[in-house]
Amino acid sequence: MENMYDAIIVGGGVIGGAIAYSLAKRGKKVLLLEKDRLANKASGAAAGMLAAQAELDEDGPLFQLAKKSRDLFPALKKDIKELSGIDIGLINKGMLKIALTKQEEQEYKRIIAIQQRAGEQVQWLTGEEAREKEPALSNTVLGAMYIEKDGQVEAPQLTLGFLKSAAALGVVIKEHIEVQSFHYENGNVAGVITNEGDFISNNVIVAGGAWSNKLLQDSELKLEAYPVKGECFSVCTHRPLFSSTIFSHGCYLVPKQGGRIIVGATVIPKTFDQSVTVDGISLLIERAKSLVPSIGEAEWEKVWAGIRPQTADGLPYLGEHPTCKGLFVATGHFRNGILLSAITGEVVSDLVEDKPTEMDLTPFRLDRMSEILT
Ligand code: FAD
Ligand code: GLY
């Protein structure tokens, strides 16, 4: 039947795109439905850092997942370019996690010791050493964690790259179609109900970002998840001011190709409002100038905001519905969905194929918090 698929994916962000790409490589007949436009929500707003060590400092299941994902990007860059012609803008110039206070210095030195014990490349640079590496850094910088392997990509390009590559491999992608609920048959999902009619499949993957809970509300599963707004701005310079990503508490500066710099991001929980405020941007400008004073001379480009999908325990949801076979969820990637997209595509495809996953996904299962809460 024409409207019957091996799998239906709900959501045209980086997570839906990565899963579509991975399932398509495995020869599956896939449909992806997006209620708005592709890459137009969190995935289009992201700064694109692959900050496995800068954002996730403690060792644990999420750190392991993030490192595995980071390692997949060089091959992904090549494959996506070949299939779609899109350059995902992978840059491997490392990251400096800046300490501005003695307390931060102590904390980062503790994290360095933990990460070095876990076998990671990371080192402490004094303020002078950090400025030797990046002369644009302010004199107030006390020191920095230097993380060589934390790179970055262009997040909108990565998202469109996954989707266009998936389409080249046969995935059917439809925009402006909203999935409203699911069809069920004997404890199995049987398809989706949309504003444009029904589509049939025994496997449905919800990758709806911060909007996933709304969709799951009649499936007897309530995710402990909530939206977190992030505002950003970008500027341009004639010559690059620095080449590593500058990451600090409450602000980061990500140098892109051609002298463009993305500065992010505010963290405003429990709102779906995507407006950008003067207060949010002023705060970021102040923080950015305290890290790199010369950014004040850069040419203004634009502002934007996106809604991150966060969970109560900070771990993403990656798993099958506890009572409905074939209904999968992949969301809650919060600040690291771009980084985690590559591995999410692979492990969720393993789940759909009922194959053992490369990593134990128990910590990410869908009913983990209902167990804790009862
Ligand atoms: P989204 O991109 O929000 O996509 C979900 C899609 O599902 C949306 O397009 C939505 O319209 C669609 N949808 C929802 N419900 C339905 C429905 N019922 N029917 C059809 N479609 C539906 N991560 C990093 O790794 N590195 C970074 O540097 C980084 N920077 C960030 C900066 C900012 C300002 C923000 C906001 C986020 C940042 N993130 C970063 C986090 C990252 O952007 C997210 O974790 C990631 O984009 C989530 O992807 P997603 O596909 O789950 O969600
Ligand atoms: N990972 C950066 C952000 O979410 O703002």
UniProtKB/TrEMBL annotation:
Highest rank taxon of the organism: Bacteria
GO CC terms: cytoplasm
EC number: 1.4.3.19
Pathway in which this enzyme or protein is active: Cofactor biosynthesis; thiamine diphosphate biosynthesis
GO biological process: thiamine biosynthetic process
Keyword line: Membrane, Oxidoreductase, Thiamine biosynthesis, Transmembrane, Transmembrane helix
An MF annotation (GO) of this entry: glycine oxidase activity
Catalytic reactions of this protein: glycine + O2 + H2O = glyoxylate + H2O2 + NH4(+)
Keyword hit for Hydrolase: no
Every FAD dependent oxidoreductase domain range: 6-351
First-tier enzyme category under EC: oxidoreductase
Gene behind this protein: thiO
Residue ranges of the TM segments: 6-24
InterPro entries for the chain: FAD-dep_OxRdtase, FAD/NAD-bd_sf, Gly_oxidase_ThiO
Protein name: glycine oxidase
